[in-house]
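Annotators were shown the component list below and the corresponding predicted structure, then asked to write short factual statements about the assembly.
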Amino acid sequence: MSGYLIIRNLTVRLRSGPVILRSVSLNVAAGQVHGLVGESGAGKSMIGKAVLGTLPRALQITGGEIWLDGVDLLSLSAAERRRRIGATAALIPQDPLTALNPSKRIGPQITRRLIDILGWTKQAAEARALELLDEVQIPNAARVMRSYPHELSGGMRQRILIASAFAAEPKLIIADEPTTALDVTVQKQILRLIAQMQARHGTALLFVTHDLGVVSKVCDTLSVLYAGKVVEEARMQRFFMRPIHSYSRALLSATPSYEDPLGSLTPVSDTVIEEVEAEVRWHDARAGT
Amino acid sequence: MRDARGDIRRPIGLRLWLSGGWLTLLALGALFTPWIAPKDPLMQDLFLGRMPPFWVQGAEPGYLLGTDSLGRDVLSRILYGTRLALIVALVAGTLTCVIGATLGLIAGYYRGWPDRIISRFVDIWMAFPPVLFAILLIAVLGPGLISIIIAIVVIDWTRFARVIRAEAMTQGAMDYVASAQVAGRTRFGTMLTEILPNVLPTIVALLTLEMGIAVIVEAILSFVNLSISTDSPTWGGMIAEGRTSVHQAWWVLVFPLITLFLTVLSFSQLGEGLKDRFDPVLR
Ligand SMILES: Nc1ncnc2c1ncn2[C@@H]1O[C@H](COP(=O)(O)OP(=O)(O)OP(=O)(O)O)[C@@H](O)[C@H]1O
Ligand SMILES: [Mg+2]
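Structure shown to annotators:
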């Protein structure tokens, strides 16, 4: 098994009992883009949060391993884990409106990580931030650095968050539905920007989305998640030509394609849902839950 | 691409000016009382009892706001009372704020067992009727400035704890907090640098409100004779005394009452005004 991020049999539960992630395994190779698809509530965000150590307090990792850059994060102390994650991984969040601190100017929010983790001087960090803002095509970067988040549009803020995620040259970026909160015209630009940045910086990217159309554009490999269980992991090409799992097939025919956006769509049928539900129940029974 | 949202600057509201102006005036008055008070507030002169304020027929020159039934100068007494009121407002308000806001912040941000303990404590605390609680406390501690301040802090910290807890919870769920943690911040550091600045406007508004409340509580306690020793003039004490002779000498009651009213109003207005100024989103 090779990969920059390797998740093995990760199980996450609510502290009150119910299972959220069912023995999830996935693999993001260095410099590659791995898509994570599934319907709302499948547990996509929780995988990202488990990796970054930001799970809500109601949730708890009860088993498995998370290897990041050759180190099992779950075997580290909390402080050590935070340091490692800070130095190697970053997040592009879903909602640019709540992802920037409303009471702080943009500049310090980008430079923070460079100063805190990499120990850069303020001047060097600011110069780097300006460079990054240029790179994500923000005009008037110097002025934006001095702005408060509420003075900027959603698209601008998402560009800033992308710049900020790449600032410390992390080896892994987790993008959690980075375009769903934006309007359609901006979505494509942001998507293209993320793909460009990823390619230029050679970062491994875990790309969370519920849109298979988007996955087909930017990903190298993908996992399909249903009710906290990975039902299929595949390379892109193979997946779109020969999806193995019936839920994957159903998902594909429920997704409009870029080539034929108005072509006929079939909603995921009840039989398919019943089939995958049975699989989840079988998994739970075997895991003794 | 930058839109004009940030360029809107709201004028500093009239209420901020008025309330700030009144409180500044009071503060100056309190600071320089011994120099500006026209008379000794305790000096009695039975021949000058119940003199009306200066614009009324029969006023005695030198007693701008008249005298009470013992011939003491109402203006001087109000000024000396201001000192006391403001000391109580500042000290009790600040202590209440620091204690309540700290506990609220910890409960709301850390959740888990700190939250359970603090919240349970707040709930139990709030089950006591506050006025009774205050009177009981003073009865135990004995009257005096310190007792009043302690009573106010003990009763009112829960107000801060509850509100700030809720605010910290909302802020804590925002993505920027998670980002700060991914960037290697400790929980405690995140609380101080990310959460605190965002609940600060609320803290400021509550603090000024609390100062107004402290002034009222002090007045109520003086009114029922549980405050500072009876010879140092307090607004509440003056109101209590003025009440008994309101038909013969309304000014003894009305002037301290107006002062009290304007002060409490100013504190709450100042709070609202400052909250708007502090809030980067509304600013
Ligand atoms: N704080 C929480 N307390 C209890 N349950 C939670 C909490 N957060 C998430 N969950 C549960 O975890 C499951 C997975 O949620 P998650 O946010 O990962 O879904 P998702 O796949 O990201 O969906 P979406 O596409 O809507 O973002 C959901 O069923 C949700 O109910
Ligand atoms: Mg999600």
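Statements collected:
1. Chain B touches chain A through 25 residues (CB under 8 Å).
2. Chain B has one domain: 14-29+60-278.
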